Amino acid sequence: MDLHLGPGESLRTEYALSPRRYRSLEFLYSAGFFLLSVAVPLIANPIDMGIIELIWNALDEGQIGSLLDAGIRLALMNTVQDLPIYLGALSLAEVLARRYKDKPQVLYYAVPIATVPLVYWIVYRVHGVAYDFTMPAILGIAGVAYVLRLGSASPIKQKWKSLWIVTLLLSGFQWLSISPALTALGFGHGDVSLDLKVAASVLDAEPLLNTLSFMGASMMVISGLITSKFMIDYQAHIRLVQEEKRRSLQLERMRSEAMQARTYRELQVLVHDLRTPLTTIQGLASAMSGFSVSSVDARVHAQAISEAADRM
Which residue in 302, 13, 310, 312 sits closest to 155, CA to CA? Predict the structure, then answer.
């Protein structure tokens, strides 16, 4: 089945699903992200990703390269851990905003604010892993709200654009968590992040770690903003196309109505033009029927003329 959807078409239209079933699938889609976020710590954790080992090797051997490698892996791990949570919040907010259309702006902020700490708590209860709900999490919630305000993401292309923008922004915010210079501003207060920064302080590698953090964050955030700009331009183009289509249909309807009106007027003129001679024919035929003509049966001819006029 062709998955390409035109402007304004939705997944529900393409698959001819009922509204109720479509909403159910969207809720399952959001729930899938939240379930994935609970399972992610099983594979994305400091031990399995070698972050703890790299930090200790950097301290034991004085290798700044190992420390920077640990910082890169930590930013990646934090992104992988948090990404399903924020994507689930994004999807759920979209579903609820379409269902409760009278207050979408409130849901854009309320849903992430409610779901992100809740999933953090669930992860802690299940795995004993305490996620750091500080500045990166707050910026992540703001990023989700920003993407939601860009517009509806129901069409497939728009939905994946929205998910990609959130991924880029969230990754950029997590890169800032490994910067020692931003610790006082609420970035990187987790245990592993603090251990990384302490190791950087011991090795005098704080400037390098700050540079790495800012470079990674800048690339991700700028890429997210550029993608969102493309998304805004695409939506503006779609609106212009839809408006042009609406105007074309309106113009075509006006032309059709004008043609119908002109045809009606022409028919009225034609009827009038036919009615005048036919009335004359009927009148003369009626008069002829009263004449007395011996050589030609005028009455028969007059009757034929009158009947022909009636049929016309």
Answer: 13
- Residue pair 30/77 in contact (Cβ under 8 Å)? The answer is no
On the CB side of 185, how many CA atoms lie within 13 Å of its CA?
13
Which stretch of DSSP H or E encloses residue 135? Answer: helix 135-150
pLDDT digits (tens, 9 = 90+) for 12-64: 444 445 566 666 777 888 889 999 999 999 998 999 999 999 999 999 988 89
The predicted structure's pLDDT at residue 258:
84
Residues of the chain with pLDDT under 50: 1-16, 153-157, 295
Closest CA to 8 of 157, 150, 149: 157
> Interior CA angle at 52 toward 46 and 57, to 5°?
155
Q: Identify the helix (H) or strand (E) that includes residue 282.
A: helix 206-288
Pairwise CA distance, residues 133 & 184, whole Å: 15
Rounded to whole angstroms, the Cα distance separating 277 from 202 reads 114
Tell me, what's the pLDDT at 82?
93
